[in-house]
């Protein structure tokens, strides 16, 4: 036998009730409806609920429950898909935010490096309004003369810091020697021979020592003032 839907049962039941009413009317002496009556035609084409075996009724009910389960499953799938799409959207937004933060950090670091490089270039360009070779060579130099050289070679905003270091390292004595370590000159270079990179006369020319000392401070610390800050914290530079 074929499966019959619950909707079919409902229609069949309603038709059966109508048909029974019509039969009772005839038995009571009422007029019989013509065969063309829609209700009678429907009743003739329908199966009464009472005529459907109990087994088929159970099958119909099972089909209805299965249909409901399918509807619920479809709804659950749609909700799960919606949740997955929302989670994916949030993850994409989070990834985009993290990527932007990383890009901003990289850009900031790059800008900081560029500024630092520019600063060093500016310091280097201002490092000497007069080069060490522009000073006359003498057999000896007074402290005042050495300081005058330094003022002409060190940028104005860096001179005091440079002077502070020289005060502590040599007291502006360009021939000062540390007997224990061998450091030498105004800035106490160690080993002393490193100052040869600024000039062969590094032992006797304070201008050559100033040139080397300024270059060392700029290269190692960024400026004489930064070198002085390090010296204050460590008592050496």
Describe the fold and architecture.
This protein has about 240 residues and is an all-alpha fold. Helices cover about 65% and strands about 0% of the residues. The protein contains 7 helices and no strands. The longest helix has about 70 residues, at about 55-125. The model is unreliable at about 1-35 (pLDDT under 50). It comes from Streptomyces botrytidirepellens.
Summarize the structure.
This protein has 237 residues and is mainly alpha-helical.
The coarse silhouette is: rod-shaped
Query: Percent helix among the residues?
Result: 55-70%
Low-confidence stretches: 1-36
Rg over CA atoms: 52 Å
Strand content: under 5%
Q: pLDDT average, as an integer?
A: 80
Distance linking N and C termini: 104 Å
- Summarize the helix and strand pattern as letters: HHHHHHH
Number of helices in the DSSP assignment: 7
Biased composition (Low complexity): 124-134
Domain Transglycosylase SLT: 160-225
Protein name: Lytic transglycosylase domain-containing protein
Biased composition (Basic and acidic residues): 78-89, 96-123
């Amino acid at each position: 036998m074929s499966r019959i839907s619950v909707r079919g049962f409902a229609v069949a039941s309603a038709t059966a009730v109508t048909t029974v009413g019509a039969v009772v009317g005839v038995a009571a002496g009422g007029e019989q409806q013509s065969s063309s009556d829609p209700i009678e035609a429907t009743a003739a084409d329908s199966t009464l609920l009472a005529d459907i075996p109990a087994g088929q009724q159970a099958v119909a009910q099972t089909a209805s429950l299965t249909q409901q389960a399918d509807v619920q499953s479809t709804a659950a799938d749609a909700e799960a898909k919606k949740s997955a799409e929302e989670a994916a959207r949030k993850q994409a937004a989070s990834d985009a935010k993290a990527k932007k933060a990383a890009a901003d950090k990289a850009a900031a670091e790059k800008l900081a490096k560029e500024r630092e490089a520019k600063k060093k270039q500016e310091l280097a360009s201002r490092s000497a309004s007069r080069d060490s070779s522009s000073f006359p060579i003498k057999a000896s130099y007074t402290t005042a003369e050495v300081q005058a050289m330094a003022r002409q070679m060190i940028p104005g905003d860096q001179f005091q810091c440079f002077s502070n270091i020289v005060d502590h390292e040599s007291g502006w004595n360009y021939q000062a020697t540390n007997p224990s370590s061998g450091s030498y000159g105004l800035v106490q270079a160690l080993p002393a021979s490193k100052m040869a990179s600024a000039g062969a006369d590094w032992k006797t020319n304070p201008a050559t020592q100033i040139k080397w000392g300024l270059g060392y401070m700029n290269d190692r610390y960024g400026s004489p003032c930064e070198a002085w800050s390090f010296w204050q914290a460590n008592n050496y530079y």
